[in-house]
Amino acid sequence: MPNNDILHKIAITRIPRVGGVLAKNLISYCGGAEEVFRAKKRELLKVPGIGPVIAENIIEQNVLREAETEMEWMERHDIQPIFYLDDNYPVRLRPYEEAPLVLFYKGNAELNPPRTVAIVGTRKPTERGKMICEELVAALKKYDVQIISGLAYGIDVTAHKKCVQIGVSTVGILGHGLDRIYPPEHRSVGMEMCENGGLLTEFSYQVQPKREHFPMRNRIIAAMSDALIVVESGEGGGSIISAELGNKYGKAVFAVPGRLRDDYSKGCNLLIKNGKARLLENAEDVASILEWDNEQIPSPDIREKLFADLNENEKIIVNILRNVDDMSIDKITFESRLAPSQISSILLNLEFKGLIKNLPGKRYMLC
Fold it and tell me: Residue 167, Cα to own-chain centre: how many angstroms?
């Protein structure tokens, strides 16, 4: 029998029209993943964003049976589900509201390495573009980076193949379930990547590669990277979307310049011209901007921004936990003077924000 906690988390990802934001709202309001499926319809309808159709889908519980079948499949194929609050969930992705509730992973690479670089570009690169891509991967190796891309035709697969060839960790972010690799021609390199990297997706198995999934995939590529490099691109397409997302997320975005009026370089040149990407000549440009040669530079800390965004009740609990190593939920309830019915959802929200940690025995500590 599958682990009930994981089963209910996966089931939530299978509810039609429920994405990462709504899934976290459901768990928060109901007090846990299992509690979502125990809730009455009138309780579900109180959750912001939940209407009668979604509530009925939860009540029918078909997704629980689907999730059980999926878990059995994952066990047979060595697929690992990673929940939003798990220690191995990508910490670079977690701060964003749209971060998926559950990720599905096949591979053995650490998803929280010290340094990550995304390399994206056109699906129909020139020989020059492929050569530049390979040279960048080779030059980045000395910085012990993990290369992230989307396993698509062109620049994506060129970067992945070079990583496999020279032993650089690489992770492919997919726009479909892990029961397949798209395009099918990349199945061989995808399997090789799992030896020193992996394949990661937010989509359940049997979810096919649809056009709308790839922009969704691009946000994960951008969020999981410290730097994002565009190698050859037209004026539109997935690479430009990734660059825009990289800017939105505060990442270091680079573009390889090309000749004027060259269709393969229009997107890169425009990104540089409009100040949306730094001009990239070599791997040392990335290392310089990210100060990789200065070991004293601390990792970015997003906690202060998160503290500023807390509501009053969340601030009360955070301030209580500031002065202790850890505290039981009963003691927190007493100290905060908040209603016991509120405490569980507030604590869960703070967990989702990465500010507190749930310890054995219903004790909590500040991260």
Answer: 24
Structure tokens at 278: 């730094």
Which amino acid belongs to residue 231? V
Is 282 strand, coil or helix?
coil
Each residue's pLDDT tens digit, 130-146 = 999 999 999 999 999 99
**Structure tokens given for 65:** 């049976």
**Alpha carbon of 355 to those of 303, 329, 350: distances in Å?**
7, 16, 6
Residue range(s) occupied by CATH 3.40.50.450 in the chain: 107-289
pTM, two decimal places:
0.82
CATH architecture of 303-366: Orthogonal Bundle (1.10)
Q: How far apart are CA 243 and CA 99, in angstroms?
A: 18
C-alpha of 145 from chain center: 18
Q: Residue 195, by phi and psi: left (phi above 0), alpha (psi -120 to 50) or beta?
A: alpha
Q: Where in the chain is the domain with CATH 1.10.10.10?
A: 303-366
CB 111 within 8 A of CB 171: yes
For residue 170, the 8-state DSSP code is: E
Tell the CATH topology of 4-76.
Answer: DNA polymerase; domain 1 (1.10.150)
CA angle, residues 297, 302, 308, in degrees to nearest 5: 135
Question: Cα–Cα distance between 276 and 273 in angstroms, integer?
Answer: 8
> What CATH code would you report for 107-289?
3.40.50.450
Question: Which strands form 363-366's sheet, in the order they lie side by side?
Answer: 327-328, 363-366, 356-359
Tens-place pLDDT, residues 147-188? 999 999 999 999 999 999 999 999 999 999 999 999 999 999
* Omega within 30 of 0 (cis) for the link into 183: yes
Where in the chain do CATH 1.10.150.20 domains reside? Answer: 4-76
Strands 80-83 and 146-149: unpaired
Which single residue is written with the structure tokens 């190698």? Answer: 231
Q: End-to-end distance of the chain based on CA atoms, in angstroms?
A: 33
Map residue 161 onto helix, strand or coil: helix
Token pair 């994002």: residue: 228
Give 109-156 as a DSSP string.
S-SS-S-EEEEEE-SS--HHHHHHHHHHHHHHGGGT-EEEE---TTHH
Tell me the backbone φ, ψ of residue 134, rounded to 5 degrees: -65, -40
